[in-house]
Amino acid sequence: MNEKSFSIKQDLKLKNSQKSLDWWKKQISSVKSMIGIVSLCFMGLIIIIGMDIITPPDKKNISNFRPAKNPTIAPTNTPSRSSSSHRGIQISVTSPCSWTGNYGDESKEQSVQGTESKTFSVSGRPNVVSAVFQKDDDGNDTLVVDLIKDGNVIERKSTCAQYGVVSFAHSFF
Fold this sequence. Notes:
Elements: H1 2-54, E1 80-81, E2 89-94, E3 98-105, E4 109-115, E5 118-122, E6 128-135, E7 143-149, E8 152-159, E9 165-171
Antiparallel strand pairs: 1-8, 2-5, 2-7, 3-4, 3-6, 6-9, 7-8
């Protein structure tokens, strides 16, 4: 009986250890499934970000720009003297490449395009002036946009990115 009882105890231990092993196999299987799901989500995110980086911006979106009514953007640099002695507000675009853009105030907007340097006057005494300009090519040339008031550059933005965009909204309050 002693041998039989020893054999039964060993069988119980084997059954218990088998149950324990089965339980661990299920846990490991669940963990593997979760790792697989997380890996797929991560790969999808990388693909989406990669597509966003390599896809050039839509050139048509620039024509849908509307100036903000209450911008809170402050000038990015200190005023400097422009070569222009013009009184009033101007937007100067300088670039060796072709570009397209919009500028305006709270009452109207102008769509413009050009190559190289051009200066545009903003009529009246607007409270807010907004502008957005985009390079029309994938070159590394620099597009510079200056907001000028009474001959002083009060805001300057630039880009050298392929199809790069420059934008600002300036309040004269």
